[in-house]
Amino acid sequence: MASDMNPHGGKKASMASHGLENSGVSDQASHGKCQCCCGGDGTPSLPGNSSLVGSHTEGKSSIEICGVCSFDSDHADDLVEEVRSSKSRSSHVEIADNNSCLDVKKESCLAADNLPQESEIEQAGGTLEDLFFFSEDEEDDSDWEPTSRLAVNRWFCLNCTWPNIDEITFCMNCHELKGSDVAGYDLFKTQMAQVALLSAETELPPASTAIGFDERMLLHREIEIKPNPHPERPDRLRAIAASLAAAGIFPSKCALVPPREITKEELMMVHTPNHIVSVEQTKNMLYSYFTADTYANEHSACAAKLAAGLCADLASLIVSGRVRNGFAMVRPPGHHAGVNQAMGFCLHNNAAVAALAAQRAGAKKVLIVDWDVHHGNGTQEIFEGNKSVLYISLHRHEDGKFYPGTGAAHEVGTLDGKGFSVNIPWSRGGVGDNDYIFAFQNVVLPIAAEFAPDITIISAGFDAARGDPLGCCDVRFLLFLIAELCPYLHNVASAMKRMIGPVTPAGYSRMTSMLTACSEGKLLVILEGGYNLRSISSSATEVVKVLLGDGTNFDTCATAPSKDGLKTVLQVLKIQHQFWPVLGPAYALLQAQQGSVFSKYTKKGNELKKKKHLGAPGPFWWKMGSKRLLYEALFKGRRLRKIKATGKEKLIQQNTKYVIC
């Protein structure tokens, strides 16, 4: 049930407990999804700016309870009376001090003029928070607080929501120009208005692709009471729709599924009644929060039911054979929503609703592949004891330090569902196409073939892509700084880009193509995360092209993984081959190759150390100590470029002596 939101500066309620015991969410989940990237404490630093704390949760008095935190209009009168009585009590004490009155309970000590008038409170601010908790006598003491930050003018990138100092004109994370906008959505709306909705009488070719979308899902947004934009925002769907329209894909080449809200009975098969009621009652509130970063407004309950309803209908259409495959362009996302908990921007679990709808339509076995960079703890919790639904997740884990902290390789399911939860937990960020394809070839596809599903559902989060503010799987920002601060390291930066990188649109396209072989091409792609507009729009477009049969043809040769990627896959194979004997040969082969692969890395490292010890020619950084290298990178490179612009570089280079530290 909803409870009233505490005033800013008040004592915070304890962490939400409903569903935590069952879902296995670690303590990391309590920090919020936005605070778990780019650093140990989730607070990436930027040059010229103090810090970015949790992207959009900075400065918010957050409360996490079993239901929803909100201002409830039913308690407005009580709260105003409480403000008055509190003010009255404070006035008693203040006057007692000034007049040396020892009896603070005397009515004569109360100055009636100091009481706040109701009209003054109403004019204090435009939000309910200002109405209830405004105090004109409250002093602003931020100037002496040790934790106060310097006021820095900044702007937020529309493409990735990254904060940037006002002096620069492009985003330091994704290089998007300041003032960019989402273009092309109006064209999409015009075309969509001319498309007839799919009905029972509609005749479709057997290889058609259906798409689920409704504009009412754009009404789900965080109320703008904070300066920092929320990464899960309506522009995500607008960008994807505009990209599909520009590519001539949707709605011209796809069938449009009529939207409907999921019924309570259908939701009861996935979530508890308490959870359903908690989400439903948000429609009566101005704004509310399930966790620090999982928001809702008066339209969120409708949007969540539309998203779940579209996913359920798409799954039924695919299983029945009316369409071959489909793409659910929906929000809010769902794979973090557990049996009794909304979290991680997710309200209802769309993939779980779709899986059970597919089984009601005749599917006996359902495969869910989740490639979102965050582990789908909610989906795993819902099906961890169900052997008719196989859940495979590839995600960034870092030994439980990455949100939500679940999804270790040893989490294999419970009871009859043991072995039907397969987690491939990456040990670091920056895992790219090669590692994902390698995991597909050696883990995902062999298990899927053995399982033989009747339909495959992809929880398609695109937050492992380039420039994502939460996935942080891109070293582009670091390499940009290297190239800017130290131009002669440009070649090194370019080499690092080739070795370490995020998942590309081509990578997502290839994974989708590989999964089309499962379940005879019956494939449903459901949008989950992904918060860089350019990355998610281009990636989603490539995925839909595969569904239409227009995707690129990829070779089937083996892919070479990174050292860390190979370690992760071997760890998974060691655990899962006892449940899936088909993995035995691959595990034995990779174990035999492991020594030679790791010895190659070790041999290269030893050769470099030996050359350095013997004084042989090597990389330039051997000629200077680490302090000197840092000085050269930070100051010398910029100084030389500045002098070069004035035509005095020759004179300076003659008078400069490089001292080896």
TrEMBL record:
This is histone deacetylase. GO terms for molecular function: histone deacetylase activity, hydrolytic mechanism; zinc ion binding. InterPro entries: HDACs, His_deacetylse_dom, His_deacetylse_dom_sf, Ureohydrolase_dom_sf, Znf_RanBP2. One of its GO terms (biological process) is epigenetic regulation of gene expression. GO terms for cellular component: cytoplasm; histone deacetylase complex. Residues 155-174 form the RanBP2-type domain. The keyword Hydrolase applies. The lineage of its organism: Eukaryota, Viridiplantae, Streptophyta, Embryophyta, Tracheophyta. It comes from Eleusine coracana subsp. coracana. It comes from the Eukaryota.
